[in-house]
Amino acid sequence: MLARVIYAVNWYNFAAVFTFVARDLNQNVSGLGIVVGSFYLGAAIFQIPGGLLAAKIGPKKTAVYGTLLASAAAFLTSLSTNLAQITVLRFVVGAGMAFVFAPGVILVAKYFREQAEGFSVGLFNAAFYLGGALGIFGWTVLADVWGWRESVAISGGVGILTGILMLTLVPRDSIREDFAMELLEIRRIISSRWLFLLGLGMFGVTAFSSLITGFMVYYLHNSLGASAVLAGSVGALALLASLFASPLFGALHDRVHNPARLMFLCGLTGIAGLELASIMNVPAAMLSNLIVGFAAGGTVTVGFSAARELAHAEYETLAVSCINSTQLFAGFFFPPIFSATVLSFGYSWAWALSGLYVFPFIGAILLSKFRIFAGKSS
Length: 378
Prior knowledge:
By secondary structure, the chain is mainly α.
């Protein structure tokens, strides 16, 4: 859980401090779109390799390696002198984090009590959102007081320390000596129609949540004239709302065997929250953050809990990695599109149009009845 908090700090804090980066390196919203997209691309590409590695060497070792790689790259970002260096390093941060999330889901569910695995995933996600809120608000304040380089160096250093603690304190992986990865089983999971539809729906959720968490602080500070502290405070609301939603929806998942309708309603709620941001004032931005955060936290928790049930024990990490990879590609595609729309039409139109092109992906959730979530078949 501690590792998950620090992981989230390094996930979200760079978008929060970009106001200061832009001032230092003479950048604008297009630079933010490139950096955010690069990070999500790294996180998306390496999800499935991370899942395969966890199946081979165990989730603990995989998570430790990923934490150390991501944290080292986050630390080195503080030494960057231009946007190109930052873009490459944020890609590496995302790649490292791709080796952490799915193994973490499996470890937490493994160590939690039986028949409450959904709730355990909700708590794990809540730790992520707590760290995200800390990263957005706390690191905005740190960057304002000490400078963005110092603040990013601190989060990277703490992440490295966390990786060392995981290595020494988390129980060793229990790997079956006779286990060998079966190509047919891997192909069955990767080509699963159910996982594809689930991932496509979560692709839409990541689209609207990545725009809120990636651009809101910069938007409030540069376009609405909010102070850095106020912008960071409002930006953190989305993660705090997700923090409360995650265990709630995790518990609901343990009682509901057909989560498609629940996920679809959460997705529609998130789109409505995204549209509110187009009103272009601070109160609307606050409400938008709360609604989007709550919807995203609920949908993601239910989705990952459901994906874990689609595979046999040795391949649970791979199943979670598959939908995580699909959804994270949204963070690669949509931020550059959003920043280009801002430059062409302004923020109001950019927020409003975003909800329209996210809706078809949310609707994909209803293309299946997801009957298999009650068991382990495909």
